[in-house]
Amino acid sequence: MQDVLDRLIELLDLEELEVNIFRGRNPQEDRQRVFGGQVAGQALVAAGRTVESNVVHSLHAYFLRAGDPKIPILYEVDRIRDGKSFSTRRVVAIQRGRAIFHLSASFQKVEDGPEHQIAMPDAPDPETLAPWAEWMGERMGAMPEPIKQWLMRDRPIEVRYVKPEPSGDAAIGRQLVWIRARGRLPDSLLLHQCVVAYASDLTLLDTAQLPHGIIWADPRYQVASLDHAMWFYRPFRADEWLLYVQESPGAFGARGFCTGNLFTRDGKLVVSVAQEGLMRPVAR
């Protein structure tokens, strides 16, 4: 599985075309649009390449248009500010002369201060849970063959669900998922943060769909990420298991809102995530 992870690392290794201008490639996959986690991860790489020593502590992003996976993505970085403690960057992802994604990120020098965190919920060890292929294989049913092949392809991120079933109960919008990169990553902290930015978009919006019994690729709904925000607390490794605790406080106006917290196996809170996504019923 290291090969598929190496392809993700290559995907995040942007080509520098000019000062503050980078080009990102798309994977050779049959997709109708660019995966949101990919463009978020690449944009964070672009921002990080322009910062000398500070570490990213937050990002806020909007998905503006569907990306075309058949052509490269251009990333333009605006160096908004470099202060004594913080650096701020703005990144615009462009295809065919139009912005498809916008990201603002803040970087901070390493500092000491007060610490507290919420507790990690109880969860079974990831080794006791079914691997993705086994879990999904039992649930594909009568899905069209192209979708089955897409779902069963090799993936750079290993995902193991704790309680993922669509419930149809509007009071339950919560799921726990173990995630990690499928192989060993280099030691760059920025790379580990970018890999988690990529992975954080894989399952989060699903949490808002669970209370309504909406399944993945449900033809009754148009589903897409609208925005994405992340806060990074302390260093971590994306190639070690992280428990992704996801909740959806509510949905309204064809939009679902989700939050997530990622914990290391020893219970340290390392990342928080928030996202709003489109869940629009398709007219028939």
Note down, in words, how this protein is organized:
With about 280 residues, this protein is α+β, with helices and mostly antiparallel strands. Helix content is about 20%, strand content about 40%. The protein has a single domain, classed as Porin, CATH 2.40.160. The protein is built from six helices and twelve strands.
- Count of individual domains: 1
Q: Taking all residues together, what is the mean pLDDT?
A: 90
Fraction of residues in helix: 10-25%
CATH fold field value? Porin
Q: Which short descriptors sum up this protein?
A:
single chain; 284 residues; Porin; 12-stranded antiparallel beta sheet; globular
Summarize the structure.
The chain is 19% helix and 38% strand. It has 6 helices and 12 strands. The longest helix has 13 residues, at 36-48.
How are the secondary structure elements laid out?
Blueprint: H1 2-12, E1 15-18, E2 21-24, H2 36-48, E3 55-63, E4 73-82, E5 86-95, E6 98-108, H3 132-137, H4 145-151, E7 157-161, E8 174-181, H5 189-200, H6 206-209, E9 221-232, E10 242-252, E11 255-264, E12 269-281
Antiparallel strand pairs: 1-2, 2-4, 3-6, 3-9, 4-5, 5-6, 7-8, 8-10, 9-12, 10-11, 11-12
Helix pairs in contact: 2-5
